[in-house]
Write a structure and sequence with these properties.
Number of helices: 15
Strand content: 15-25%
Number of domains: 2
Family: Belongs to the phosphoglycerate kinase family.
CATH architecture of the largest domain: 3-Layer(aba) Sandwich
Helix content: 25-40%
Subunit structure: Monomer.
InterPro entries: Phosphoglycerate_kinase, Phosphoglycerate_kinase_CS, Phosphoglycerate_kinase_N, Phosphoglycerate_kinase_sf
Bound molecules: adenosine monophosphate
Organism: Microvirga tunisiensis
Strand order of the largest sheet: 5-6-4-1-7-8
Radius of gyration: 23 Å
CATH topology of the largest domain: Rossmann fold
Catalytic activity: (2R)-3-phosphoglycerate + ATP = (2R)-3-phospho-glyceroyl phosphate + ADP
Largest sheet: 6 strands, parallel
């Protein structure tokens, strides 16, 4: 990767390295209940420590309004220490004399976690004075928190402007995947977008139709498109007031030579309920008193054919109400097909955002995709074509 400065270019030995990580882990009664985010940043911490750098971790936790003991990172320091299998010091402020003193006492290879950056209003305001206070504690800055990179905060963007800045390994993997997925993809490039609503994904759809060769639309949002094209959708979830928006997206796709693939059949039921009695109808024959809860088998065949045509696949959002059986079948079948093509070396598959990770886990294939991003907001903003401040600041 040449577009971003990475740890490969950083001389960390003997240096104080401020490392922004995502430690916004789920907790219950002071215990970390899912350590995925900790595990993701271990390689970066380990590498800097092994190379003789002094690792000073910066992170936010929750959305505190000022200092709040309930949102302290102290218990997280213990969890990081356990996973890293070495001591992790903790200071109850991320700036000031106590932090400075502990930083001075660090030896090469030591690891320190500073308290929640959001205890200071200057963090979210990206206040230059707060940035300077943080910058005093380090010689270099490494950002390993892609999930926070859509925010221009002091610890995600400001620091990169005042210290030599590099992408950590988790950030680098994410940027690599995103570059392969949309910036410089192998074509044909196909996107699958599903989920509940068009309204939350208008920017995303408008960006994708100008970038991809084919766009598969599934899930509840497909109903809005089907309705916009003049077909009946019964009691299906839809945003009928967005018919004009849907048509604009279809027109834009036509202009950009992007094929739009809509469902040709739907699995329908009278109620949104697991195990509900259901039947598959052609998309031009949806009964007035039923709702579409999943794409039908003919649609799955078309989606699988689109995946076969693709060299690269970008996926966001389930194709149906995947949380309730049997309406998970379309999503599961398409996900397994994409995973199989990826395993065969025929497809680069990048997925992420919202419920997508849960849907791929449900299908049992999250590990078989080329890359699955767990960064909700940042991943979606990237799909919308927005530039992410924390990423821009790392460009070489
Ligand atoms: P999103 O957060 O926008 O990705 O939407 C995910 C949600 O969309 C999931 O909770 C699905 O159950 C829901 N969903 C997908 N397809 C349908 C559908 N046909 N009818 C109702 N809900 C759906």
């Amino acid at each position: 990767m040449t577009a971003f400065r990475t740890l490969d270019q950083a001389e960390v030995k003997g240096k104080r390295v401020l490392v922004r990580v995502d430690l916004n882990v789920p907790m219950e009664n002071g215990r970390v209940t899912d350590a995925t985010r900790i595990e993701r940043v271990l390689p970066t911490i380990q590498e800097i420590a092994d190379k003789g750098g002094k690792v000073i971790l910066l992170a936010h936790f929750g959305r505190p309004k000022g200092r709040d003991p309930k949102e302290s990172l102290k218990p997280v320091a213990e969890a990081v220490s356990k996973h890293l299998d070495k001591p992790v010091a903790f200071v109850d402020d991320c700036i000031g004399e106590a932090a400075a003193q502990t930083v001075r006492s660090l030896k090469d290879g030591d690891v320190l976690l500073l308290e929640n950056t959001r205890f200071h209003a200057g963090e979210e305001k990206n206040d230059p004075a707060f940035v300077q206070e943080l910058a005093k504690l380090g010689d270099l800055y490494v950002n390993d928190a892609f999930s926070a990179a859509h925010r221009a905060h002091a610890s995600t963007e400001g620091l990169a402007r005042v210290l030599p800045a590099y992408a950590g390994r988790a950030m680098q993997a994410e940027l690599d995947a995103l570059t392969k997925g949309l910036e410089a993809p192998k074509r044909p490039l196909v996107a699958i977008v599903g989920g509940a609503k068009v309204s939350t994904k208008i920017d995303l759809l408008e960006n994708l139709v100008t970038r991809v060769d084919a766009l598969v639309i599934g899930g509840g949002m497909a109903n809005t498109f089907v309705h916009a094209t003049g077909l009946g959708i019964g009691k299906s979830l839809a945003e009928k007031d967005l018919a004009a928006t849907a048509m604009r997206i279809i027109d834009k796709a036509r202009e950009a030579n992007c094929a739009i693939i809509l469902p040709v059949d739907g699995v329908c039921a009278y109620e949104f309920k697991a195990g509900a009695h259901n039947h598959t109808y052609g998309i031009d024959a949806i009964p007035e008193d039923q709702m579409i809860l999943d794409v039908g088998s003919q649609s799955v065949e078309r989606i699988s054919a689109a995946i076969n045509d693709a060299a690269t696949l970008v996926w966001n959002g389930p194709l149906g109400a995947f949380e309730i059986t049997p309406f998970d079948q379309g999503t599961v079948a398409a996900a397994r097909h994409a995973a199989q093509r990826t395993k065969e070396g025929k497809l680069v598959s990048v997925a992420g955002g919202g419920d997508t990770v849960a849907a791929l886990n449900h299908a049992g294939v999250a590990d078989d995709f080329t890359y699955v991003s767990t960064a909700g907001g940042a991943f979606l903003e990237w799909l919308e074509g927005k530039s992410l401040p924390g990423v821009e600041a790392l460009r070489a």
